[in-house]
Design a protein that fits this description.
The complex is a heterodimer of chains A (320) and B (384).
Chain A lengths: L3 H13 L2 H18 L6 H10 L1 H15 L7 H16 L6 H26 L3 H19 L13 H4 L1 E2 L2 E2 H19 L1 H11 L1 H6 L4 H27 L10 H11 L11 H20 L4 H19 L7
Antiparallel strand pairs in A: 1-2
Helix pairs in contact in A: 2-14, 4-9, 4-12, 4-13, 4-14, 5-6, 5-7, 5-12, 5-13, 6-7, 6-12, 9-10, 10-12, 13-14, 13-15
Chain B lengths: L3 H18 L16 H4 L8 E2 L10 E7 L5 H16 L4 E8 L4 H13 L4 E5 L7 H9 L4 E4 L10 E4 L2 H15 L4 E7 L5 H15 L4 E8 L4 H15 L5 E4 L5 H10 L10 E3 L3 H10 L3 E4 L5 H13 L4 E2 L1 E3 L4 E3 L14 H4 L30
Parallel strand pairs in B: 2-3, 2-4, 4-5, 5-6, 6-13, 7-8, 7-9, 10-11
Antiparallel strand pairs in B: 1-12, 11-14
The chains are: A mainly alpha (320), B alpha/beta (384).
Chain lengths: 320, 384
């Protein structure tokens, strides 16, 4: 190893936005898993991994856009807790309540996200602080609403999380479509390109008269909307919403974003990297389970991956 | 299941199974109770819910998966160790015991259960992180034909073969009845509960209150919450002693975790050895050490982590196709301080039989792991 190697690697990575590295890691893990166990290779196991990635993928999608603008959304965990508790609480076991509640939850997620955006614009406070504050507010609200699991959902509601269409898990297929749509939006819509511009050089973007407010409202609103989707999905998976359901998702949602090559400083990256990052983490957990590695090492492995990813992708000029 | 004679036959087979099972690890001393579960034998109901497990009958050796909610406190560590020890004991029948730990995360535990099913386990033992969130995953395992034995924490629905647990209600009642009889039906009690709203605490408090209510001479001065912590337990008892002083005639404590804090509070308030009012406790070494040293009348009724090991025994019973009770309530060892048997709580076991005199105060003594057990150094060669 020469001293130059990591630098060369990092510049190449930047060009390919990390997607390639994660893809290679994915393949290596798949081959590795296949060697460990015959059962790893079974279709049902691979579909399981695909299915298990759905919740994380939904949250990370919104998070990717927030991070692309140079911000971050730390309210996602509490938002999911609130929205999923409301989902089962308001459906209260009635099939007829499912459509109105689902629509309401998605709108509420959107609304909370827009509130985040407005606060960021008006107060000119860093999104980290605004969304952290929002997170505490939302956690308080959900605990006022219910101290434990609230309401219930009809058994057929589980179909969203465990159902299959043409042998493929519904949620996981939905994810593929959703990521594709967002990728197209980022690439071809004018607003999509502004997201990169604001994250790349906020001052420059302002000087050029880019609509920063609209960008902020879009990304945080979308992140809230994604939390609504995740909340509905998780309520289906657990058959109930609880005031701490989303707790782990705040930090977890950042991992696939940075692993997928999106810079924490904003402006570079994309949603495909995030999707591969999500698959990498689901696959890693599955392989470690097959290897009988205790979950304590699984945590360590995930933490090290985040640090490694950030250090590989970080831009030289922004290094401290 | 309307066929009465069939049910009766199942009951007989089940009872035989229970008796065979119930000679667990604790039988090192004749004073220890090693019989069939008392709650089963003394149950006055003619109909006891039994599950037919003939559909799960399988030739061994078996691969058993254990999806644990998480570790994080000493009770759960001993529970896990007792399970490993039991798997080691049944090496001839168990090919592999695969253990996953969800770190108290519902999403991870659902994925763990799915992964264990992918790995082709013959039976799943599950200690559910939360009752409802794990319900769909456990129900799906059952629907896929994989029998699930719950241990310590069940899911909300009845979609499992059996639930291995101890009785909170029995603990609460025995504690209260002993206090009533120790006080001769007259006196003031402080209820030192666990965490407000937590089910183990509430399920012990309510039956205890019902016992106290039957004796007009008994007054519950106050119910205070310790959050299962000796530090918090000490604080709240200091407040109670300041408020009521010598009016306090007994302390009903929902578990042994907070009992040492209460006894310390009495010692620091100037109570001499032999003056401290009667206390109740469970599972923890420290309160027994203190009771012996400071001559505190004490009743111990455990919520034994030995249920981990027993869940493996029950799992093997299921895979052998023998009927099992729908809820499997394991025995607690009942011990009192010397001379403190009462008409209702009559036990040959003394605190001195249970205590590990030189052991750590926070050690659990009801894991059925034998006198040399040390959770820090424990290692057993179980099939993995």
């Amino acid at each position: 190893m020469t001293a130059l190697a990591p630098i060369r690697l990092s510049s190449r990575v930047r060009k390919n936005q990390g997607v390639l590295v994660v893809a290679v890691l994915l393949v290596i893990l798949l081959i590795f898993g296949a060697f460990i166990s015959d059962r790893f290779r079974t279709t049902s196991n691979i579909l399981n991994i695909f299915e298990q990635s759905t919740g994380l993928a939904l949250v990370s999608l919104g998070q990717t856009l927030a991070i692309l603008t140079g911000g971050i959304d730390l309210s996602v965990g509490s938002m999911i807790s609130l929205l999923s508790t409301l989902t089962s609480g308001l459906i209260a076991g009635k099939v007829s309540m499912v459509p109105p509640v689902a629509i309401g939850i998605l709108l509420l997620g959107l609304l909370i996200g827009i509130c985040n955006g407005l606060l960021i614009i008006w107060l000119r406070v860093h999104p980290l602080i605004v969304t952290l504050g929002m997170s505490a507010v939302l956690q308080g609200i959900v605990l006022l609403y219910s101290l434990g699991p609230a309401g219930s959902v009809p058994p057929s509601f589980n179909f969203l999380a465990y159902g299959k269409v043409l042998g493929l898990p519904i949620g996981a297929v939905f994810i593929l479509v959703l990521f594709l749509l967002v990728a197209l939006f980022l690439r071809y819509a004018r607003l999509g390109r502004y997201i990169y511009a604001v994250g790349d050089d906020e001052v420059g973007a302002r000087l050029m008269g880019l609509p920063r407010a609209r960008v902020m409202l879009t990304v945080y609103g979308f992140s809230g909307f994604c939390c609504g989707l995740a909340a509905i999905y998780l309520t289906s998976r657990f058959s109930v919403g609880q005031p701490y359901t989303g707790l782990n998702y705040t930090l977890a949602s950042i991992t696939p974003v940075v692993v997928g090559g999106t810079l924490l400083s904003g402006g570079k990256g994309g949603v495909f990297g995030t999707l591969l990052g999500v698959y990498l983490i689901s696959l890693l957990n599955n392989v470690l389970n097959f290897m009988d590695v205790s979950m304590h090492y699984q945590l360590i492995a995930q933490g090290l991956i985040v640090i490694a990813a950030v250090s590989v992708y970080v831009e030289k000029k922004k290094r401290v | 299941m309307s066929n009465i004679s069939r049910r009766f036959a199942m009951l007989l087979v089940g009872a035989a199974g229970l008796a065979a099972l119930a000679a667990p690890v604790l039988a090192q001393d004749a004073k220890f109770y090693s019989g069939a579960p008392r709650t089963y034998l003394y149950n006055p109901d003619t109909d006891v819910c039994f599950k037919d497990t003939s559909q799960y009958k399988k030739e061994g050796p078996y691969t058993i998966g254990f999806s644990n909610a998480g570790l994080g406190d000493s009770w759960r560590v001993v529970m896990l160790h007792s399970m490993e020890a039991s798997a080691a004991k049944h090496k001839d029948q168990i090919k592999k015991l695969i253990i996953t730990d969800a770190g108290h995360d519902d999403a991870k535990q659902v994925a763990d259960i799915q992964d264990l099913i992918s790995r082709g386990v013959d039976l799943l033992i599950v200690s559910a992180n939360t009752q409802q969130a794990l319900d769909p995953a456990v129900s799906q395992a059952m629907a896929a034909g994989i029998p699930v034995v719950m241990v310590d924490r069940r899911v909300a629905s009845d979609n499992f073969v059996t639930f291995v647990t101890a009785s909170d209600a029995m603990m609460g009642r025995l504690f209260a009845q002993w206090i009533v009889e120790k006080l001769g039906g007259k006196g003031n009690v402080i209820m030192l509960a666990g965490q407000a709203g937590s089910s183990p605490s509430e399920n012990r408090e309510k039956p205890a209150r019902e016992v106290f209510a039957q004796y007009p001479g008994i007054k519950v001065l106050e119910t205070v919450y310790s959050d299962w912590s000796p530090v918090k337990g000490k604080q709240v008892m200091q407040a109670m002693i300041a408020k009521y002083g010598k009016q306090i005639n007994a302390v009903w404590s929902a578990h042994g975790l907070q009992t040492p804090g209460s006894i310390e509070a009495f010692i620091e308030a100037g109570y001499k050895d032999g003056e401290i009012p009667p206390h109740t406790t469970a599972d923890v070494n420290g309160p027994l050490q203190m009771a012996i040293e400071h001559k505190v009348p004490m009743l111990e009724v455990g919520y034994p982590p030995a249920m981990g090991g027993i869940s493996v025994d029950v799992a093997l019973q299921v895979l052998a196709g023998a009927p099992v009770p729908c809820i499997y309530t394991i025995n607690s060892q009942i011990a009192v301080s010397e001379g403190d048997n009462t008409p209702s709580i009559e036990t040959p076991l003394r605190l001195t039989d249970l205590v590990v005199p030189k052991g750590a105060p926070d050690m659990l003594i009801t894991g059925g792991m034998g006198p040399d057990y040390d959770p820090k150094t424990f290692k057993v060669d179980y099939p993995q």
